[in-house]
Amino acid sequence: MIFSPAISLVCAFLFSSVVSFTSYEIYYLFPIALILFYNKSHILKIFKTLVFLNSFILALSIVLYLENQPYEALNIFIRTNMIILFNISIFYNSKGYDIVRGFNLLKFPDSFISTTYFTLKMIDNLTNDFKNIKSTLRARGFKAKTNLFTYYTFGNILGMLFIKSIRKSYKLKESFVARGFNKKIYLNDEFMSTNKDKILIFLIFLIIVIKVIL
User: Fold this and answer.
1) What pLDDT is recorded for position 90?
2) Is 187 left (phi over 0), alpha (psi -120 to 50) or beta?
3) In the chain, N or C: fewer CB atoms in 10 Å?
4) CB neighbours (10 Å) of residue 102?
């Protein structure tokens, strides 16, 4: 990650909270612009992801607009997109495990950190399994269609993944019980705050101070 995991989590929470519960202001764009500047090599991919996630937001905004609430529709559309864009940008290079390190740096309870880590690990494993199954189906010439065979195929895949996830969770539990696991996992938390982190947290707190004063 470009920013420290702990700073990223704190900034994401504070920025999302401020934007969610206040009216839109132009200076909310400053921290987003900073993050995009450091992520300039991935800007196109970030905005592609934003466009993909906009289908529901756009539908909600259209409904509000048709109900003669154009200002509310525009306000929700802008604020929601700002929150999504901020979070996509700041966690763009993260695979999830950096978030666990962030919780560890912020001194969250050991049980919460270990649960989050193993949940992400299981999701990662199931995602890889699903990709492997898709590759196998593609190699065998399978094509998804609107027929019962396709529905049966995907139903069997989901059922198989569900059973595999249960088996893996039981094996993981037995393995850690045998090793005397005490709810604590040990992570690399040797992250130093850089000037990037300091500038970002300064901008976030500046926004909060301005909103409180005004």
Assistant:
1) 92
2) beta
3) C
4) 25
